[in-house]
Structure formats: C-alpha cells, structure tokens
Amino acid sequence: MNKPFIVGITGGSGSGKTSFIRSLREVFSNLEMCLVSQDDYYLPLEKQLVDEKGVANFDRLESIELDELYGDILKLIAGQTVTRKEYTFNNQAADAKTLVFKPAPIILVEGLFVLHHKDLRDLMDLKVFIHARTDLKVIRRIKRDRIDRNYPLEDVMYRYAAHVTPAFDKYIKPYREVADITVNNNENFEKGLEIVVAYLKHKLTSL
Fold first, then answer.
1. CATH architecture observed for domain 5-204
2. How far from the centroid of its chain's Cα atoms is residue 128's Cα?
3. What's the CA gap between 56 and 179, in Å, rounded?
4. Distance between CA 134 and CA 155 in Å, rounded?
C-alpha cells in the first residue's frame, strides 16, 4: 500500500478552519479521506493549568496531547484503525461520541499547533494555512464559543486577549511562512478551496 498523503491545516482561532475543512470534507468520501482534529486531544479540564485569574488556559502546547496525536497519525499511516473519545470543551450539554479514524489515501490533520510540532510537520506532504483579519477572527470566536461551548461573553473576550493572541503570535503565525498554500478567508475561502480540492483529486489518482 502506498503511503497516505498527509495534509496539515492550521490557522488562528476564528480564521475559518472548521468551515473550510467541513467544505473540503464534503468533496471526498470516507474511503478517500480521514480527518483527525487536534481538538480531540485536549487534556481533561481538571488537568488544564489555570492563569493568575483562575481561568483554564487551553492555548498552551501542554494543554494538548500532541505526541499522542502524532502517534495516532503514525498508526493510520501503518494501516491501523484508531479510536478516541470526542472532546466536548466543558459543554455539559454535549454528548461525547467515540470517534473512529480509519486509514485512507488522504489523511487530514488539523489544529492550532499541528505545524509547530516538528515531528507532525515532517510527516506532512501539504501544509495549508487559513488566514483572516484579526477583527473577523474575534467575531467568529465569540459566535463559536457562545453557541458551541456555552462560554460567557466576558470569558470569551478575556481568553482571546490573554491566551489566544499570545499563542497565535508564538505558535501559529510563524508557520504561515512555511505553508505551501495560504487561503485568505476574509470574505470567503471558495477560490482557495477549489485549488486544494483540485490538487488533492489529482493526488488521489496516484495513491
């Protein structure tokens, strides 16, 4: 079996990664593409460190089991199926599912820090960076955290200033320079999506 084609996708919080990946995922079947998200590798809330105000900081490298993520990608490359419990971001109303990742010709690895982790980055055949203006990222972050994660507005804004921005500047932004493709998502990502889809469809013919 040929080695799967590994695609890494990153970008700042609120840049539109989730929407971009959802649209990309709709084009390919489960037999063609497997998606693995860094979000499902967060440590449990009780193991997250808190800052001086007692707020859990999810935007630290140590908040995520990146080495476990790397190990699971190696398993998929070796043709093994991986199972993992979904992470629900402290939303008690959410029902955590058991996720099943099956080997596929294309493996999509997405998350804030997936390019910063050198071993993960070295596995990637294509690196994609999703970019958006800061003001748009803030608005999108507010909508997501208020609806999906049930966080109060004050908490969302505090986290963005104290946790999200410093992490972006240190662990995410520098890797825009090493990305193979940067997708600008200030208005929409349609043209960037078309390019990535066309490239991956071409790659599938040789996998």
1. 3-Layer(aba) Sandwich (3.40)
2. 11
3. 30
4. 18
User: What are phi and psi for residue 192, nearest 5 degrees?
Assistant: -65, -40
66: part of which helix (H) or strand (E)? Answer: helix 66-77
| CA atoms within 13 A of residue 161's CA, in its CB half-sphere | 5
Query: pLDDT by residue (tens digit) across 62-75?
Result: 999 999 999 999 99
Domain ranges of the chain: 5-204
Q: Can you give the pTM of this predicted structure?
A: 0.90
pLDDT digits (tens, 9 = 90+) for 150-186: 778 888 889 889 999 999 999 999 999 999 999 999 9
Reported residue count of the chain is 207
Neighbours of 173 (CB within 10 A): 15
DSSP conformation class of 33: E
